[in-house]
Specification:
- The chain contains 11 helices and 5 strands.
- The protein is an alpha/beta fold.
- The protein folds into 2 domains: 236 residues, Nucleotidyltransferase, domain 5 (2-Layer Sandwich); 42 residues.
- A 5-stranded mixed β-sheet has the order 3-2-1-4-5.
- α6 links the parallel β4 and β5.
- It starts with a helix and ends with a helix.
Length: 290
């Protein structure tokens, strides 16, 4: 039985988090989620802004004041080298939260909404007999942080690797960065970078289009690209995404033609003399460079 015959249709839910830095005192700026099918089409997606510009005392809740959470705190290096650059700066504007909630209240609102979103799509997949996966490009941080929020705001709810449908069945939260590196380790051993893996895979395989979505630090768009990566890897495994003809193979064929042409020239010159050089060269060029 072929792998493609054994693999059921699958929807992939990817989550992404943007933060104001890598330290404990820094904050989540935005949370995004995207649901993508086997054809790399986004079925649904959502981004929740959690960026709090400096706010006046009238907008600070008692809960935030008790925890000294007034506004988004940036790591200096992260603000200077990343969020102040043109692309991320635009995303930051879109992620500003201007509602009445405080920082911690917004976190609770977002994690409850995200969990409900995942639950809806897990049930959708179950009723259609589809496989269902939750993925991240950095689960140790992103999923870990979201599970911390769940513990803080949702009590005894089981963390995200578990089913959201009350069955308490465990499933792995797959790491797309590691999966891409694993593929390239097998098919392109010379590749040795954590960056640019999606582009390199697209050079090696006939990947579907990303349908206008780009990794631009809008968390919904970034979540789509993460789910897209997972669906591409599934497509490669089941044989619906084919390997491209490799340039190295073409070079090898060209080298063979050139070697053959050299032998033909040598034989022709020896047999007919150098007077026929122009005609023989034309024949050789026609063979070597069709």
């Amino acid at each position: 039985m072929q792998v493609a015959e054994k693999m059921r249709e699958c929807i992939v839910v990817a989550v992404d988090i943007e933060t104001s830095g890598a330290l404990a005192e820094n904050n989540v700026i935005g949370v995004g989620v995207s649901v993508v099918d086997d054809d790399c089409v986004e079925l649904a997606g959502r981004a929740w802004g959690c960026y709090f510009p400096h706010r006046t005392g009238k907008l600070q809740t008692a809960r935030d004041l008790a925890h000294r959470q007034y506004h988004t705190v940036f790591e200096e290096r992260c603000a200077r080298d990343f969020w102040s650059t043109p692309g991320p700066a635009g995303a930051l504007v879109d992620l500003a939260y201007t509602g009445p909630l405080g920082v911690l209240e917004r976190h609770e609102q977002v994690i409850r909404a995200l969990y409900a979103f995942i639950q809806v799509w897990e049930e959708w997949a179950l009723h259609r007999g589809f496989e269902f996966e939750v993925v991240s490009d950095n689960p140790s941080f992103d999923i870990g942080l979201l599970n911390t929020w769940m513990r803080s705001y949702m009590g005894d709810t089981f963390p995200l690797p578990y089913s959201t449908l009350g069955e308490y069945s465990y499933r792995a939260c797959l790491d797309t960065t590691s999966l891409k590196r694993g593929l390239l380790m097998a098919v392109d051993p010379a590749w040795d970078s954590n960056w640019g893996c999606t582009k390199r895979i697209a050079q090696l395989y006939m990947c579907p289009p990303t349908r206008g979505k780009a990794h631009n630090h809008n968390p919904q768009n970034d979540a789509y690209t993460i789910a897209y990566d997972r669906q591409v890897l599934r497509g490669i495994r089941r044989g619906t995404i084919a390997r491209r003809a490799q340039p190295c193979a073409k070079r090898s064929a060209s080298t063979l033609y050139c070697t053959l042409g050299t032998l033909v020239c040598g034989f022709a010159y020896a047999a007919f003399g150098f007077g026929a050089r122009a005609q023989i060269s034309a024949w050789v060029n026609a063979i070597t460079f069709p």
